[in-house]
Design goal:
Layout (H helix, E strand, L loop, with lengths): L12 H40 L8 H22 L3 H4 L1 H11 L1 H10 L7 H10 L2 H4 L1 H11 L2 H29 L9 E6 L5 E6 L3 H4 L1 H15 L9 H4 L6 H32 L9 H4 L1 H20 L2 H20 L11 H29 L4 H15 L2 H16 L3 H23 L8
Antiparallel strand pairs: 1-2
Protein backbone atom coordinates (compact mmCIF):
# COMPACT_ATOMS: atom_id res chain seq x y z
CA UNK A 1 0.00 0.00 0.00
CA UNK A 2 1.59 3.26 -1.14
CA UNK A 3 1.95 6.13 1.30
CA UNK A 4 2.82 8.93 -1.12
CA UNK A 5 0.63 10.14 -3.97
CA UNK A 6 2.50 10.45 -7.26
CA UNK A 7 1.20 13.96 -8.09
CA UNK A 8 -0.90 16.67 -6.50
CA UNK A 9 -2.24 19.72 -8.40
CA UNK A 10 -5.29 21.11 -6.57
CA UNK A 11 -5.22 24.39 -8.53
CA UNK A 12 -5.63 22.41 -11.77
CA UNK A 13 -9.40 22.18 -12.28
CA UNK A 14 -9.18 19.05 -14.41
CA UNK A 15 -7.05 17.23 -11.83
CA UNK A 16 -9.20 18.50 -8.97
CA UNK A 17 -12.51 17.40 -10.49
CA UNK A 18 -11.14 14.11 -11.76
CA UNK A 19 -9.45 12.79 -8.63
CA UNK A 20 -8.20 15.50 -6.29
CA UNK A 21 -11.56 16.49 -4.80
CA UNK A 22 -12.44 12.97 -3.70
CA UNK A 23 -9.08 12.40 -2.02
CA UNK A 24 -9.05 15.82 -0.34
CA UNK A 25 -12.53 15.55 1.16
CA UNK A 26 -11.92 11.96 2.31
CA UNK A 27 -8.73 13.12 4.00
CA UNK A 28 -10.51 16.07 5.58
CA UNK A 29 -13.28 13.84 6.95
CA UNK A 30 -10.98 11.29 8.57
CA UNK A 31 -8.48 13.80 9.96
CA UNK A 32 -11.26 16.01 11.32
CA UNK A 33 -12.75 13.11 13.32
CA UNK A 34 -9.28 12.41 14.67
CA UNK A 35 -8.86 16.10 15.52
CA UNK A 36 -12.11 16.09 17.55
CA UNK A 37 -10.58 13.36 19.72
CA UNK A 38 -7.36 15.37 19.92
CA UNK A 39 -9.13 18.38 21.40
CA UNK A 40 -11.20 16.16 23.70
CA UNK A 41 -8.04 14.51 25.02
CA UNK A 42 -6.37 17.89 25.44
CA UNK A 43 -9.23 19.41 27.44
CA UNK A 44 -10.47 16.38 29.36
CA UNK A 45 -8.09 17.42 32.15
CA UNK A 46 -9.91 20.73 32.67
CA UNK A 47 -13.12 18.74 33.18
CA UNK A 48 -11.66 15.99 35.36
CA UNK A 49 -9.90 18.32 37.81
CA UNK A 50 -13.21 19.87 38.90
CA UNK A 51 -14.11 16.50 40.48
CA UNK A 52 -10.81 15.50 42.12
CA UNK A 53 -11.38 17.25 45.45
CA UNK A 54 -14.80 15.64 45.72
CA UNK A 55 -13.41 12.09 45.61
CA UNK A 56 -10.69 12.58 48.22
CA UNK A 57 -7.71 14.17 46.45
CA UNK A 58 -6.42 16.96 48.69
CA UNK A 59 -5.01 19.24 46.01
CA UNK A 60 -5.04 23.02 46.47
CA UNK A 61 -6.87 25.35 44.10
CA UNK A 62 -3.50 26.45 42.73
CA UNK A 63 -2.50 22.83 42.05
CA UNK A 64 -5.76 22.23 40.20
CA UNK A 65 -5.12 25.30 38.03
CA UNK A 66 -1.66 23.90 37.32
CA UNK A 67 -3.17 20.62 36.15
CA UNK A 68 -5.51 22.54 33.85
CA UNK A 69 -2.55 24.58 32.57
CA UNK A 70 0.03 21.86 31.89
CA UNK A 71 -1.68 20.36 28.81
CA UNK A 72 -1.41 23.81 27.23
CA UNK A 73 2.29 24.04 28.00
CA UNK A 74 2.94 20.65 26.44
CA UNK A 75 0.64 21.29 23.47
CA UNK A 76 2.30 24.57 22.55
CA UNK A 77 5.74 23.00 22.65
CA UNK A 78 4.63 19.93 20.70
CA UNK A 79 2.95 22.12 18.09
CA UNK A 80 6.30 23.72 17.36
CA UNK A 81 7.57 20.25 16.51
CA UNK A 82 4.44 19.31 14.55
CA UNK A 83 4.75 22.49 12.48
CA UNK A 84 7.56 20.87 10.48
CA UNK A 85 6.49 17.21 10.33
CA UNK A 86 4.00 16.99 7.45
CA UNK A 87 6.39 18.08 4.64
CA UNK A 88 8.98 15.61 5.99
CA UNK A 89 7.01 12.48 6.94
CA UNK A 90 3.64 13.01 5.23
CA UNK A 91 0.03 13.02 6.35
CA UNK A 92 -0.47 9.26 6.66
CA UNK A 93 2.37 8.54 9.08
CA UNK A 94 2.08 11.68 11.18
CA UNK A 95 -1.70 11.63 11.71
CA UNK A 96 -1.82 7.88 12.40
CA UNK A 97 0.90 8.01 15.04
CA UNK A 98 -0.60 11.19 16.54
CA UNK A 99 -3.93 9.40 16.93
CA UNK A 100 -2.55 6.30 18.65
CA UNK A 101 -0.22 8.18 21.01
CA UNK A 102 -3.18 9.86 22.72
CA UNK A 103 -3.94 6.49 24.32
CA UNK A 104 -1.20 7.31 26.86
CA UNK A 105 -3.03 10.14 28.69
CA UNK A 106 -6.47 8.60 28.13
CA UNK A 107 -5.56 5.30 29.81
CA UNK A 108 -3.17 6.92 32.27
CA UNK A 109 -5.76 9.29 33.74
CA UNK A 110 -8.25 6.44 33.95
CA UNK A 111 -5.98 4.47 36.27
CA UNK A 112 -4.69 7.49 38.20
CA UNK A 113 -8.09 8.69 39.41
CA UNK A 114 -8.98 5.20 40.66
CA UNK A 115 -6.28 5.38 43.34
CA UNK A 116 -6.75 8.19 45.91
CA UNK A 117 -3.08 7.82 46.85
CA UNK A 118 -1.88 8.84 43.38
CA UNK A 119 0.54 11.72 44.03
CA UNK A 120 0.27 15.14 42.42
CA UNK A 121 3.42 14.64 40.33
CA UNK A 122 1.83 11.67 38.54
CA UNK A 123 -1.18 13.78 37.61
CA UNK A 124 1.20 16.53 36.47
CA UNK A 125 3.05 14.13 34.14
CA UNK A 126 -0.23 12.79 32.76
CA UNK A 127 -1.49 16.34 32.26
CA UNK A 128 1.61 17.01 30.17
CA UNK A 129 0.92 13.92 28.05
CA UNK A 130 -2.63 15.21 27.47
CA UNK A 131 -0.81 17.87 25.47
CA UNK A 132 -0.38 15.23 22.75
CA UNK A 133 -4.01 16.05 21.91
CA UNK A 134 -3.27 19.72 21.49
CA UNK A 135 0.12 19.43 19.83
CA UNK A 136 -0.92 17.57 16.72
CA UNK A 137 -3.18 20.43 15.55
CA UNK A 138 -0.09 21.90 13.90
CA UNK A 139 0.13 18.84 11.70
CA UNK A 140 -3.57 18.65 10.88
CA UNK A 141 -3.81 22.25 9.66
CA UNK A 142 -0.73 22.29 7.36
CA UNK A 143 -1.89 18.98 5.91
CA UNK A 144 -5.36 20.30 5.08
CA UNK A 145 -3.91 23.53 3.70
CA UNK A 146 -1.89 21.53 1.17
CA UNK A 147 -4.78 19.31 0.09
CA UNK A 148 -7.16 22.08 -1.01
CA UNK A 149 -7.06 24.78 -3.74
CA UNK A 150 -6.84 28.41 -2.63
CA UNK A 151 -10.54 29.12 -3.23
CA UNK A 152 -11.51 26.42 -0.70
CA UNK A 153 -8.78 26.78 1.92
CA UNK A 154 -10.80 29.03 4.22
CA UNK A 155 -13.78 26.69 4.19
CA UNK A 156 -11.69 23.52 4.55
CA UNK A 157 -9.55 24.91 7.38
CA UNK A 158 -12.63 26.38 9.03
CA UNK A 159 -14.47 23.06 8.87
CA UNK A 160 -11.58 21.07 10.26
CA UNK A 161 -10.53 23.49 12.97
CA UNK A 162 -14.11 24.37 13.89
CA UNK A 163 -15.38 20.80 14.13
CA UNK A 164 -12.12 19.83 15.80
CA UNK A 165 -12.73 22.53 18.41
CA UNK A 166 -15.99 20.75 19.27
CA UNK A 167 -13.74 18.28 21.06
CA UNK A 168 -13.41 20.85 23.85
CA UNK A 169 -17.17 20.87 24.38
CA UNK A 170 -17.26 17.11 23.96
CA UNK A 171 -14.87 16.67 26.89
CA UNK A 172 -16.74 19.11 29.13
CA UNK A 173 -20.23 17.95 28.10
CA UNK A 174 -19.61 14.20 28.19
CA UNK A 175 -17.67 14.11 31.46
CA UNK A 176 -20.78 14.47 33.70
CA UNK A 177 -22.57 11.86 31.58
CA UNK A 178 -19.74 9.34 31.63
CA UNK A 179 -19.39 9.62 35.42
CA UNK A 180 -22.43 7.41 35.77
CA UNK A 181 -21.13 4.67 33.45
CA UNK A 182 -18.75 2.05 34.80
CA UNK A 183 -16.54 0.81 31.98
CA UNK A 184 -13.80 -0.44 34.25
CA UNK A 185 -12.96 -0.43 37.95
CA UNK A 186 -14.88 0.43 41.10
CA UNK A 187 -16.78 3.68 41.62
CA UNK A 188 -15.61 6.52 43.84
CA UNK A 189 -17.67 8.27 46.51
CA UNK A 190 -18.18 11.87 45.40
CA UNK A 191 -18.96 14.38 48.15
CA UNK A 192 -20.39 17.86 47.62
CA UNK A 193 -22.38 20.50 49.43
CA UNK A 194 -25.77 21.80 48.32
CA UNK A 195 -26.74 25.47 48.26
CA UNK A 196 -28.28 24.95 51.70
CA UNK A 197 -24.99 23.60 53.06
CA UNK A 198 -26.15 19.99 53.21
CA UNK A 199 -23.50 17.32 52.46
CA UNK A 200 -24.53 14.92 49.69
CA UNK A 201 -22.67 11.81 48.56
CA UNK A 202 -22.99 9.78 45.37
CA UNK A 203 -21.10 7.15 43.41
CA UNK A 204 -19.25 8.19 40.26
CA UNK A 205 -16.82 6.55 37.83
CA UNK A 206 -14.33 9.36 37.22
CA UNK A 207 -12.10 6.97 35.26
CA UNK A 208 -14.80 6.72 32.59
CA UNK A 209 -14.28 10.41 31.77
CA UNK A 210 -11.04 9.44 30.02
CA UNK A 211 -11.24 5.70 29.33
CA UNK A 212 -14.20 6.01 26.97
CA UNK A 213 -11.96 7.68 24.38
CA UNK A 214 -9.65 4.64 24.10
CA UNK A 215 -11.72 2.45 21.74
CA UNK A 216 -12.51 5.49 19.57
CA UNK A 217 -8.84 6.36 19.25
CA UNK A 218 -7.95 2.78 18.28
CA UNK A 219 -10.67 2.68 15.62
CA UNK A 220 -9.79 6.06 14.10
CA UNK A 221 -6.07 5.28 14.22
CA UNK A 222 -6.66 2.17 12.11
CA UNK A 223 -8.76 4.15 9.61
CA UNK A 224 -6.03 6.79 9.36
CA UNK A 225 -3.46 4.18 8.39
CA UNK A 226 -5.73 2.45 5.90
CA UNK A 227 -7.29 5.46 4.16
CA UNK A 228 -4.91 8.41 4.36
CA UNK A 229 -2.21 9.24 1.82
CA UNK A 230 0.57 11.83 1.75
CA UNK A 231 1.01 14.47 -0.93
CA UNK A 232 4.38 14.79 -2.71
CA UNK A 233 5.44 18.15 -1.27
CA UNK A 234 8.68 17.47 0.52
CA UNK A 235 10.72 19.98 2.48
CA UNK A 236 13.56 19.70 4.98
CA UNK A 237 13.46 21.17 8.47
CA UNK A 238 16.12 23.71 7.44
CA UNK A 239 14.10 24.90 4.43
CA UNK A 240 11.05 25.55 6.60
CA UNK A 241 12.97 27.75 9.05
CA UNK A 242 12.85 30.53 6.46
CA UNK A 243 9.38 31.50 7.75
CA UNK A 244 11.01 33.13 10.76
CA UNK A 245 12.83 35.63 8.53
CA UNK A 246 9.50 37.15 7.46
CA UNK A 247 8.06 39.78 9.81
CA UNK A 248 4.54 38.72 8.85
CA UNK A 249 5.12 35.38 10.58
CA UNK A 250 5.37 37.28 13.85
CA UNK A 251 2.41 39.56 13.14
CA UNK A 252 0.30 36.50 12.34
CA UNK A 253 1.47 34.89 15.57
CA UNK A 254 0.21 37.83 17.64
CA UNK A 255 -3.10 37.88 15.79
CA UNK A 256 -3.72 34.16 16.18
CA UNK A 257 -2.91 34.24 19.87
CA UNK A 258 -5.58 36.92 20.18
CA UNK A 259 -8.17 34.58 18.67
CA UNK A 260 -7.19 30.98 19.38
CA UNK A 261 -5.04 31.69 22.42
CA UNK A 262 -8.05 33.36 24.01
CA UNK A 263 -10.39 30.56 22.91
CA UNK A 264 -8.17 27.77 24.23
CA UNK A 265 -7.06 29.66 27.32
CA UNK A 266 -10.55 30.49 28.51
CA UNK A 267 -11.83 27.02 27.54
CA UNK A 268 -9.33 25.51 29.97
CA UNK A 269 -9.76 28.11 32.73
CA UNK A 270 -13.52 28.73 32.51
CA UNK A 271 -14.68 25.74 34.63
CA UNK A 272 -12.31 26.46 37.53
CA UNK A 273 -12.92 30.20 37.19
CA UNK A 274 -16.66 29.65 37.58
CA UNK A 275 -16.10 27.38 40.55
CA UNK A 276 -13.63 29.76 42.23
CA UNK A 277 -15.57 33.02 41.70
CA UNK A 278 -19.19 31.93 42.06
CA UNK A 279 -18.82 28.61 43.90
CA UNK A 280 -18.56 30.30 47.33
CA UNK A 281 -22.07 31.75 46.81
CA UNK A 282 -23.48 28.34 45.80
CA UNK A 283 -21.40 25.26 46.77
CA UNK A 284 -23.65 23.08 44.60
CA UNK A 285 -22.63 24.98 41.44
CA UNK A 286 -21.49 22.57 38.73
CA UNK A 287 -19.19 24.55 36.40
CA UNK A 288 -19.35 21.90 33.65
CA UNK A 289 -23.09 22.53 33.38
CA UNK A 290 -22.25 25.90 31.83
CA UNK A 291 -18.61 25.79 30.72
CA UNK A 292 -19.07 23.55 27.69
CA UNK A 293 -21.36 26.09 25.98
CA UNK A 294 -18.46 28.51 25.43
CA UNK A 295 -16.26 26.18 23.35
CA UNK A 296 -19.40 24.89 21.60
CA UNK A 297 -20.37 28.38 20.44
CA UNK A 298 -16.80 29.27 19.48
CA UNK A 299 -16.43 26.06 17.49
CA UNK A 300 -19.71 26.56 15.64
CA UNK A 301 -18.74 30.14 14.78
CA UNK A 302 -15.41 28.91 13.43
CA UNK A 303 -17.14 26.48 11.08
CA UNK A 304 -19.71 28.99 9.83
CA UNK A 305 -17.41 31.94 9.40
CA UNK A 306 -14.85 29.88 7.45
CA UNK A 307 -17.28 30.01 4.51
CA UNK A 308 -17.94 33.72 5.06
CA UNK A 309 -14.20 34.45 5.13
CA UNK A 310 -13.84 32.78 1.73
CA UNK A 311 -16.37 35.25 0.32
CA UNK A 312 -15.43 38.56 1.97
CA UNK A 313 -11.83 38.01 3.09
CA UNK A 314 -10.31 37.25 6.45
CA UNK A 315 -8.82 40.54 7.63
CA UNK A 316 -12.08 42.44 8.12
CA UNK A 317 -13.53 39.56 10.14
CA UNK A 318 -10.40 39.42 12.29
CA UNK A 319 -10.79 43.13 13.04
CA UNK A 320 -14.43 42.55 13.99
CA UNK A 321 -13.35 39.63 16.18
CA UNK A 322 -10.76 41.75 17.99
CA UNK A 323 -13.20 44.57 18.65
CA UNK A 324 -15.81 42.10 19.90
CA UNK A 325 -13.32 40.44 22.25
CA UNK A 326 -12.26 43.82 23.57
CA UNK A 327 -15.86 44.87 24.18
CA UNK A 328 -16.65 41.69 26.14
CA UNK A 329 -13.48 42.00 28.19
CA UNK A 330 -14.32 45.59 29.14
CA UNK A 331 -17.83 44.58 30.18
CA UNK A 332 -16.38 41.89 32.47
CA UNK A 333 -14.06 44.46 34.02
CA UNK A 334 -16.44 47.39 34.47
CA UNK A 335 -19.41 45.33 35.68
CA UNK A 336 -17.18 43.68 38.30
CA UNK A 337 -18.24 40.23 37.12
CA UNK A 338 -15.07 38.70 38.58
CA UNK A 339 -15.65 40.38 41.94
CA UNK A 340 -19.38 39.70 42.34
CA UNK A 341 -21.49 40.69 45.31
CA UNK A 342 -23.70 37.64 44.90
CA UNK A 343 -24.84 34.72 42.77
CA UNK A 344 -27.26 36.98 40.90
CA UNK A 345 -24.35 38.18 38.71
CA UNK A 346 -23.63 34.66 37.48
CA UNK A 347 -26.06 34.83 34.55
CA UNK A 348 -24.52 38.05 33.22
CA UNK A 349 -21.00 36.65 33.55
CA UNK A 350 -21.91 33.49 31.64
CA UNK A 351 -23.70 35.51 28.93
CA UNK A 352 -20.72 37.82 28.35
CA UNK A 353 -18.33 34.86 28.29
CA UNK A 354 -20.46 33.10 25.69
CA UNK A 355 -20.45 36.19 23.47
CA UNK A 356 -16.68 36.38 23.95
CA UNK A 357 -16.33 32.77 22.79
CA UNK A 358 -18.45 33.61 19.74
CA UNK A 359 -16.00 36.32 18.70
CA UNK A 360 -13.03 33.96 19.19
CA UNK A 361 -14.71 31.60 16.73
CA UNK A 362 -15.02 34.34 14.12
CA UNK A 363 -11.36 35.19 14.49
CA UNK A 364 -10.20 31.59 14.46
CA UNK A 365 -11.94 31.12 11.11
CA UNK A 366 -10.81 34.38 9.53
CA UNK A 367 -7.14 34.08 10.48
CA UNK A 368 -6.81 30.72 8.75
CA UNK A 369 -8.24 32.33 5.64
CA UNK A 370 -5.71 35.16 5.94
CA UNK A 371 -2.51 33.20 6.42
CA UNK A 372 -2.53 31.26 3.09
CA UNK A 373 -3.20 34.59 1.31
CA UNK A 374 -0.48 36.45 3.20
CA UNK A 375 2.03 33.73 2.25
CA UNK A 376 0.55 32.77 -1.12
CA UNK A 377 3.97 33.10 -2.76
CA UNK A 378 5.07 29.88 -1.00
CA UNK A 379 2.53 27.15 -0.06
CA UNK A 380 5.03 25.30 2.14
CA UNK A 381 5.73 28.49 4.07
CA UNK A 382 2.00 29.11 4.38
CA UNK A 383 1.57 25.69 5.95
CA UNK A 384 4.54 26.31 8.21
CA UNK A 385 3.11 29.62 9.42
CA UNK A 386 -0.26 27.98 10.08
CA UNK A 387 1.49 25.34 12.17
CA UNK A 388 3.72 27.84 14.00
CA UNK A 389 0.95 30.28 14.89
CA UNK A 390 -1.18 27.38 16.07
CA UNK A 391 1.72 26.30 18.27
CA UNK A 392 1.94 29.64 20.03
CA UNK A 393 -1.85 29.84 20.31
CA UNK A 394 -1.81 26.47 22.10
CA UNK A 395 0.06 28.06 24.99
CA UNK A 396 -3.20 29.85 25.78
CA UNK A 397 -4.41 27.29 28.35
CA UNK A 398 -1.06 27.37 30.15
CA UNK A 399 -0.75 31.16 30.17
CA UNK A 400 -4.39 31.91 30.97
CA UNK A 401 -4.75 29.27 33.69
CA UNK A 402 -1.55 30.20 35.51
CA UNK A 403 -2.07 33.94 35.12
CA UNK A 404 -5.66 33.78 36.37
CA UNK A 405 -4.60 31.60 39.28
CA UNK A 406 -1.71 33.95 40.06
CA UNK A 407 -3.95 37.01 40.15
CA UNK A 408 -6.52 35.23 42.31
CA UNK A 409 -3.86 34.14 44.81
CA UNK A 410 -2.17 37.55 44.99
CA UNK A 411 -5.17 39.89 44.71
CA UNK A 412 -8.18 37.67 45.34
CA UNK A 413 -9.57 38.42 41.87
CA UNK A 414 -8.84 37.69 38.20
CA UNK A 415 -9.81 41.22 37.16
CA UNK A 416 -6.17 42.25 36.75
CA UNK A 417 -5.63 39.51 34.21
CA UNK A 418 -8.55 40.70 32.11
CA UNK A 419 -7.18 44.26 32.23
CA UNK A 420 -3.90 43.01 30.73
CA UNK A 421 -5.89 40.99 28.19
CA UNK A 422 -7.73 44.17 27.12
CA UNK A 423 -4.43 45.94 26.40
CA UNK A 424 -3.20 42.97 24.36
CA UNK A 425 -6.45 42.89 22.35
CA UNK A 426 -5.98 46.54 21.38
CA UNK A 427 -2.42 45.81 20.21
CA UNK A 428 -3.30 42.68 18.22
CA UNK A 429 -6.36 44.21 16.58
CA UNK A 430 -4.30 47.26 15.61
CA UNK A 431 -1.64 45.08 13.96
CA UNK A 432 -4.26 43.22 11.96
CA UNK A 433 -5.98 46.41 10.82
CA UNK A 434 -2.76 48.21 9.84
CA UNK A 435 -1.02 45.43 7.90
CA UNK A 436 -3.96 43.48 6.45
CA UNK A 437 -7.28 45.32 6.70
CA UNK A 438 -6.93 49.06 6.04
CA UNK A 439 -6.95 50.63 2.60
CA UNK A 440 -3.40 50.45 1.26
CA UNK A 441 -2.42 47.64 3.65
CA UNK A 442 0.89 45.90 2.96
CA UNK A 443 -0.68 42.47 2.38
CA UNK A 444 -4.45 42.91 2.08
CA UNK A 445 -6.40 39.72 2.70
Amino acid sequence: MKTWLTTWEPENDIFWNDQGKKIAWRTLTITTISLVLSFATWFMVSAIVTRLDGIGFNFTSNQLFWLAALPGLAAGTLRIVHTFLIPIFGTRHVITIATFIKLIPVIGFGFAVMDPNTPFWVFAVLALTAGFGGGDFSSFMPSTNMFFPSRLKGAALGIQAGIGNFGVSLAQFMTPIMLGIGFYGAPQIFTKKTAAGEVVQSEIFLQSASLWYAPLLILIGILCWLLLRSIPIKSTFKDQLDIFKDKHTWYCTVIYFMTFGTFAGLSAAFPLLLKSVYGPFDPSLDPLKYAFYGPLIGSAARVGFGFIADKIGGAVLTTISGLGLLGCTLVIIFLNLLEPSGIQQLDMFILVMLVLFFFTGIGNASTFKQFPVIFKHNPVHASGVIGWTAAIGAYGPFIFSLAISGFMVSTGSATGFFEILAVFLVLATGINWYFYNRKGAERPC
